[in-house]
Design a protein that fits this description.
alpha/beta, Rossmann fold, six-stranded parallel beta sheet, 8 helices, 6 strands, globular
């Protein structure tokens, strides 16, 4: 990994707790299952890929990659998770809101992370996990400069209206136009880059 990347280190005890949290809330064993940790939330509506897209991505990850999925939630993101679950033909495990280091431990013992543009995405990179960052209204070269530094990929459309840096958008085509296929392909690239 590139020396200029941000880094976060976790203790063995924290990693054990990460495994225990996954097992407690999902019934999955990170030592026996390939797990994709997914964070569909984020503070700003204009930076969130639609929850139904995450639901379809989970189906694709389970069907085509043979991985299980766990959902990481943030404070006040229950509606986002409910919408995701109602659009998904699978039943991913849901991890309730956790403090940063505990969420990091869950990500570290998972095999990869898919997240919207925000803190979880950056934490995943700092943990060295294969990461797909989903970006819409911001500049990837500034907010996801990791592409050549490791198993990190950005999923973005780079539309003419971007970057707009809005927090709310009535028609966020920069995200609604981002296909499940594209995000899945970026995930496969990130996983391959780790090998």
């Amino acid at each position: 990994m590139d020396d200029s990347l941000p880094r976060v280190y976790l203790s063995g005890e924290e990693l054990r707790e990460g495994k225990e949290l996954i097992m407690k809330h999902t019934g999955l064993d990170p030592d026996r299952n390939d797990i994709a940790a997914i964070h569909p939330g984020g503070t700003w509506q204009a930076k969130r890929w639609p929850p139904y897209c995450f639901g379809k991505l989970i189906e694709r990850i389970e069907e085509d990659a043979g991985m299980k999925s766990v959902i990481l939630t943030g404070p006040g993101e229950e509606n986002i998770v409910d919408e995701l679950l109602s659009s998904c033909g699978r039943r991913p495990g849901v991890i309730p809101y956790l403090p940063v280091r505990k969420a990091g431990a869950v990500m570290k013992v998972s095999d990869c992370v898919i997240a919207n543009d925000g803190g979880v995405m950056h934490l995943s990179v700092a943990l060295g996990k294969p990461t797909v960052g989903i970006l819409g209204p911001t500049e990837p070269e500034i907010w996801f400069p990791y592409g050549d530094m490791g198993p990190f990929r950005v999923a973005t459309l780079n539309l003419e209206c971007a970057p707009c840096h809005r927090h709310y958008c009535e028609e966020p085509v920069c995200l609604t136009g981002l296909s499940v296929d594209m995000v899945f392909e970026k995930l496969m690239e990130a996983l391959e880059a780790e090998s």
